[in-house]
Amino acid sequence: MAECDAEWELCKENIQPLRQGRTISALHQALCQQQEGNQTALNQKKQAFESELRLYDGDDPLDVWVRYIKWTKQTFPQGGKESNLSVLLERAVTRFTADKKYHNDARYVELWIEFAQGIGTLQAALYIAWSEEHEKRGNLKMADSVFQDGVKCGAEPADKLHAFHRALQARVCRQMMSSMTDQQRDEDDDDEGPADPQRSSLAELKARGKKKAVVPINRVSASAGYARGLQFKQPLGPKQNSRLAIFDENKAETEPQEPKFEIWMAPPTARAKENEQKPEKWSNVKLPLKSRSGLSVTVPPPKPSFQPFVEEDDQPPTVTPCKINPAVNPVLSARKPCRPEQTPLKKLQERQQLMQLQTQEDGKSREQSMYCRELLDSGATEFCFEELRAERYWQKHTH
Amino acid sequence: MSKTLKGITLKGSAELVAEFFSFGINSILYQRGIYPAETFARVTQYDMSLHLTTDSKLKNYLTNVISQLKEWLFDCTVQKLVVVITCLETNEVLERWQFDIECDKTAKESGAPREKSIKAIQEEIRSVIRQITATVTFLPLLETACAFDLLIYTDKDLEVPEQWEESGPQLIDQSEEVRLRSFTTSIHKVNSIVAYKRTDSM
């Protein structure tokens, strides 16, 4: 170990600082191993994690991912492609999107933050969404301070941010006023019975009971046109209850869609990745024929085995039949309209379209894998049957 | 402290070591962001560019400490100097830079200069300060506002001056320790260790 002691100093340019620091022992080990080119230990550990991902049957599968990621971070001090960290994060993050249990798990959220890597910290949209989340939870103070943070960071576009901020302030005022009128109303009329004694938050103000005065409320949001998220643009029906409008998918079509805020339904697609082509079916893929203009004469392009889709209104331009007197000019004749699918480029395009169609159909899949496909590719790398089987075997024989 | 190759006396050694601490502590304060970077000025020392604070209060404090330290170094009664970095809010110790000082007490009696050139000593000091700078590669980010404190371990029978108070060692529980390079003037030997809190979050 002695000769490795100063290793970290010699390699300091190749060590990415971590927010939480590095364990020096792991750092030494990683650097020494790299120098010796000793990859087996690394691979073994990696393999162990991979198989644990697949064979874990406890009730906290996220734990394995978290440990795997932590280990990766400590073991690959220079980060980069070979650490596979970005893939790991992406897999881990997408893996549990549907799992309600983890939505507010601190570790999971940390993974997301790590994955996002400071994306959007200068975007007004982030602060707007963030603030709205606070507002929805009734934490108006936080909602306001988030906006102020956004302004401080100089998030762009600033005017959008300011517009939302004003809208928020207006909503807060409105809410306070309505809570005051609601109190009054409760004192005024009791014939409503126990209907709802509580003021429903974020709802439109109504003229209720004997009081007919309606506070003119839509000024700001209407002029700014930014009432999204909160349902201010709801048509004011007299029968409508003053509750927060709940989204009903059956009614959804009839109601005007409000401009939706872009939420990340899925993680952003990773750009600039290499070798990302997924395995696909090769059996009926044909090598596109190289039909240069010279060659196409000798090798006639094979007739496609399918009926190319032609738009109904996409008729080939009809050539007005012109009468040419064959006696006058026997050489020239009316040229037949060139069949579009004959040109090599068209052919290529069609072939690709067909392949896409096929893969789409495959995707819809009457295809059913009769093996545990999820297990094989549920980790960061792909496993083969034998690896999985071996793991099971060893597990059985060690217990 | 003329740059002759005559050797080094106890007094010169104490001065060299004290000077190292002055630059070393300033470097730590700058590198770890305990004080804002604007309050530091660049100076050239040991053939490299270092940062010294321009904050008058901090400057005063450090000069006081260093001059006191110099006395103790001359008396060979100091054992350790520790820079403790604590979280301002929770008072939790986050980082601890410990410099163990070994004094050769025989130098007090003999008084004969030792055979080691200043150049060679400064070369060693430079590599220690370089390492202090390089530690950012593995130290955790100090995310909260932090304060620092200086602890000096002396021999037990020493009278504590008025401005100084006694304190505990301020150790970190669950810490990670990294030994840095050491240097020696052949009278004083300084070993450096940095300890930092191990965190479990992602």
UniProtKB/TrEMBL annotation, chain A:
<feature type="region of interest" description="Disordered">
    <location>
        <begin position="176"/>
        <end position="208"/>
    </location>
</feature>
<dbReference type="GO" id="GO:0005634">
    <property type="term" value="C:nucleus"/>
</dbReference>
<feature type="domain" description="BUB1 N-terminal">
    <location>
        <begin position="49"/>
        <end position="190"/>
    </location>
</feature>
<keyword id="KW-0808">Transferase</keyword>
<dbReference type="GO" id="GO:0051754">
    <property type="term" value="P:meiotic sister chromatid cohesion, centromeric"/>
</dbReference>
<dbReference type="InterPro" id="IPR013212">
    <property type="entry name" value="Mad3/Bub1_I"/>
</dbReference>
<dbReference type="Pfam" id="PF08311">
    <property type="entry name" value="Mad3_BUB1_I"/>
</dbReference>
<dbReference type="InterPro" id="IPR015661">
    <property type="entry name" value="Bub1/Mad3"/>
</dbReference>
<dbReference type="GO" id="GO:0007094">
    <property type="term" value="P:mitotic spindle assembly checkpoint signaling"/>
</dbReference>
<feature type="compositionally biased region" description="Acidic residues">
    <location>
        <begin position="185"/>
        <end position="194"/>
    </location>
</feature>
<protein>
    <submittedName>
        <fullName>Mitotic checkpoint serine/threonine-protein kinase BUB1 beta</fullName>
    </submittedName>
</protein>
<dbReference type="GO" id="GO:0004672">
    <property type="term" value="F:protein kinase activity"/>
</dbReference>
<keyword id="KW-0418">Kinase</keyword>
Automatic annotation (TrEMBL), chain B:
<protein>
    <recommendedName>
        <fullName>Mitotic spindle assembly checkpoint protein MAD2A</fullName>
    </recommendedName>
</protein>
<keyword id="KW-0498">Mitosis</keyword>
<feature type="domain" description="HORMA">
    <location>
        <begin position="11"/>
        <end position="194"/>
    </location>
</feature>
<dbReference type="GO" id="GO:1990728">
    <property type="term" value="C:mitotic spindle assembly checkpoint MAD1-MAD2 complex"/>
</dbReference>
<dbReference type="InterPro" id="IPR003511">
    <property type="entry name" value="HORMA_dom"/>
</dbReference>
<keyword id="KW-0131">Cell cycle</keyword>
<dbReference type="GO" id="GO:0051301">
    <property type="term" value="P:cell division"/>
</dbReference>
<keyword id="KW-0132">Cell division</keyword>
<comment type="similarity">
    <text>Belongs to the MAD2 family.</text>
</comment>
<keyword id="KW-0539">Nucleus</keyword>
<dbReference type="InterPro" id="IPR036570">
    <property type="entry name" value="HORMA_dom_sf"/>
</dbReference>
<dbReference type="GO" id="GO:0005654">
    <property type="term" value="C:nucleoplasm"/>
</dbReference>
<dbReference type="GO" id="GO:0000776">
    <property type="term" value="C:kinetochore"/>
</dbReference>
<dbReference type="Pfam" id="PF02301">
    <property type="entry name" value="HORMA"/>
</dbReference>
<dbReference type="GO" id="GO:0007094">
    <property type="term" value="P:mitotic spindle assembly checkpoint signaling"/>
</dbReference>
<dbReference type="InterPro" id="IPR045091">
    <property type="entry name" value="Mad2-like"/>
</dbReference>
